[in-house]
Amino acid sequence: MSDRQNTIVCAFHQPSTRITAFHIHEWIHETLRLDEDEISMIQIDGPRRRDFIRFSNGVRMQRLLRDTAGTLEFKHDTGELCQVQIA
Predict the structure, then answer these.
(1) Could you tell me the domains of the chain?
(2) End-to-end CA distance of the chain
(3) 20 to 30 A Cα–Cα from 82, which one of 30, 37, 50, 72?
(4) What pLDDT, on the 0 to 100 scale, is given for residue 46?
């Protein structure tokens, strides 16, 4: 059984265009405003369009959840907007 302590799940809207790992990393840095030292692991589940982000600090994770209210958007290169649920 995996340990999901200090971990959030970002679930990208299923019908949207597939997102590359590069674009996900950019989105984490630019939209979530997370630095490398705040993250201890990123796991991408491509087929299910989910990303797991484990934080080095639980306080930062709680602040992110509070500030986003559980929803953000991802903008594709084509301009298409995709809803992202954060839990």
Answers:
(1) 7-86 (3.30.70.330)
(2) 19
(3) 37
(4) 85
Q: Is 12 exposed, middle or buried (0-12, 13-18, 19+ CB in 10 A)?
A: buried
Reduced to 3 states (helix: H, G, I; strand: E, B; else coil), residue 7 is strand
Q: Evaluate whether 54 touches 46 at the Cβ level (below 8 Å).
A: no
| 57, amino acid identity | N
Q: Are 86 and 71 a contacting pair, CB within 8 Å?
A: yes
Q: Give the chain's radius of gyration (CA, Å).
A: 12
User: Can you list the residues of the chain whose pLDDT is less than 50?
Assistant: 1
